[in-house]
Design a protein that fits this description.
42% strand, globular
């Protein structure tokens, strides 16, 4: 069977989006990884499958480039919000999200931030705002779950960190039983930070929406900045607004790249 898809991106974080609301499309780790492969597949950071939802306007399933199914992806949520238009309620494994598309971009209510060590989760109890752990020169990070788990290190210059080497080491450390997304952030101004992200199951990425949410929320909790916070990623900026006890509002662009089809038989389950 031929399956239609759209290729989209949010600040260079790119997605294959399959609308399976009317005609179901079977997806497995193997098929998702094969489609995501940039040399022999279509190529993407994440593959998105849209399905019917009894609780929301649409259900969004998210597969990383390695084929693993994950809870949340902020940039993909903006892309889906732009694709569907207007106001949308989107069901994900990480919780219920709300998007609002405008002419200038898409705003997504990413839900609340969770800071408990067992909510992130960590392997054992500790202070998640100043974790007494380190990997080489990266020390005393903070952690948060924003639909998926993140650990963020605040450093003088994020560009000097060898994240391609340290990212996979931290991602797979036994401290993080569900693995973790790894961010390195630098404060550029009173409401301005720079961020680089090693994304769980993907690697270095040009943009990570949940990573931007995590870094901004943790910078606000540490009183390093005031909100709303502009987060500069390699692919461009996002704006993150959050107040203690409230939900996280992420605003930024999403873009359509091209449309196409693939044959299911070429990408077996």
């Amino acid at each position: 069977m031929s399956v239609a898809f759209r290729k989209m991106h949010g600040l260079g974080n790119d997605f294959i989006v399959i609308d399976a609301r009317d005609v179901p499309v079977a997806m497995s780790h193997a098929r998702a990884a094969a489609l995501a492969e940039r040399r022999t597949g279509i190529g993407c950071d994440q593959l998105i499958v849209l399905e019917p939802s009894q609780a929301a306007d649409v259900r969004m399933r998210i597969f990383n480039a390695d084929g693993s199914e994950v809870e949340a992806c902020g940039n993909a949520t903006r892309a889906v919000g732009m694709l569907l238009g207007g106001e949308q309620r989107i069901e994900t494994l990480g919780g219920m999200l709300a998007s609002s598309a405008t002419g200038s971009g898409v705003s997504v209510d990413m839900g609340p931030a969770r800071f408990g060590w067992d909510e992130i989760p960590l392997a054992y109890a500790m202070d998640t705002l100043a974790m007494p752990v380190g990997w080489e020169d990266l020390e005393t990070p903070a952690a948060v779950n924003v639909g998926n788990p993140h650990v963020v290190f605040f450093v003088p210059d994020a560009d000097t960190i060898d994240l391609a080497r340290l990212g996979p080491v931290i991602e797979t450390d036994p401290l993080f039983p569900e693995k973790v997304n790894v961010g390195v952030a630098s404060v550029l101004g009173p409401s301005h930070i720079k961020l680089r992200v090693w994304e769980r199951g993907v690697g270095l990425t040009r943009a990570c929406g949940t990573g931007a949410c995590a870094a901004a929320v943790l910078a606000l909790r540490r009183r390093l900045v005031t909100g709303p916070v502009q987060v500069d990623l390699p692919g461009g900026p996002l704006e993150i607004a959050w107040a203690e006890g409230g939900t996280i509002l992420m605003t930024g662009p999403a873009s359509f790249s091209f449309a196409g089809t693939f044959d299911e038989d070429d990408f077996p389950l």
